[in-house]
Amino acid sequence: MQGPLIDTLVRQGVSRRTFLKYCATLASMMALPPTAGRAMAEAMAASRRPSVIWLPFQECTGCTESITRSHSPTIEGMIFDMISLDYQETLMAAAGFQAEEALHNAMKDNFGKYLLIIDGSIPLGVDGAYSCIAGRSNLDLLKDAAKGAAAIVAMGSCASYGGIPKANPNPTGAVSVSDIIKDKPIVNIPGCPPIPVVMTGVLAHYLTFGSLPELDDKGRPKAFYGETIHDRCYRRPFYDQGKFAKTFDDEGARNGWCLFELGCKGPVTYNACATTKWNGGTSWPVESGHGCLGCSEPDFWDAGSFYKALSTPANPLKLAATATVAGAAAGVAVSFANRAKKDAAKKAHQPVTLADLEK
Questions:
Q1: Which of 3, 31, 169, 346 has the most CB atoms around it within 10 Å of its CB?
Q2: Which of 4, 110, 126 is nearest to 58 (CA)?
């Protein structure tokens, strides 16, 4: 029987101050009130490390690679201190029959309580024969594991929406987790690959409140997918000024101008890349000089045209100037109308003179 999480943290030399700071940071990133940080700390400290089962299906291992780059906490810190990762083919030492036995035991011992992470799409073609583990199709494994899961995390765009395997002509008949499982709470963490800290935040929320965070209409946590890349992009002022790079090596590109005309999909892509960034907050694609591909949106691959602008935007400066002139004109018109009303009202209360009668 596992002890409370706080005991494990103490043995690892984690101070109370560090733990509280970590929880406060998570609460802030998820746009929760200040008191939520302490609530997270109390709930997580008293909880036992939850069993997590991670099943990789039709994928490229990019999502696993991404989470190994997690810096707050590190992947080893998460595995040894926060959760009990009972099955993950890429990271576990066991293989073959021993690995499958670990999966069976974890599902049996933690039935109804474990968190199930699915990485990759599920192929339905040829009775699921395109992707199998230990002689069982991904579809069969998913249905079996989902029965005892408390909740499911669809990790990456493939598990969330079908991803690249589902792209036309979709030869394997790939589908998403939510296309198959209808009776379990599911949170989608799209991205190709997704951001590591998003997974950490969702897990911390689940440990604290016993439920998944608030989701948008596509099943994504609003705390991380509530705004577009464009909303928080540091190049946004150049967009508003009508300054766009025309090629990846022109003067505009060297000066950090907006990449919209080079195909950036930031205005229609919801994700936290611009704020959380990658590699420990070092950088992100747009900061590195490449436009957003929209990888956290459904069917992003089929949308194609990665280097073609969504549309030609009207010059923001002209729009602003037009709006200013129109507003000023409207203001003058209203001012004259109000003056006329006041004059009429004032005149209505004045006594009638001989001059008025002679008019």
A1: 31
A2: 126
Q: Which amino acid is at 243?
A: K
C-alpha torsion angle, residues 174, 180, 184, 186 (rounded to 10): 30
DSSP string, 179-210: GT--SS-EEEE-SSS--HHHHHHHHHHHHHHS
CA nearest to 241, candidates 256, 251, 228: 256
Of 114, 120, 186, 122, nearest in space to 150 by CA: 114
Ranges of beta strands (E only) in the chain are 51-56, 84-87, 114-119, 122-123, 132-133, 136-137, 149-155, 174-175, 186-189
Average pLDDT per run of 10 along the chain, which is 359 residues long? 56 70 73 75 69 93 85 68 82 89 94 94 96 94 96 96 96 97 96 86 76 92 94 95 95 96 96 90 92 95 88 54 45 51 52 42
Largest Cα span, the chain: 113
Q: Nearest CA to 103 among 136, 66, 62, 65?
A: 136
Place of tokens 């230990």: 134
Question: CA-to-CA distance for 20 and 4, rounded, in angstroms?
Answer: 16
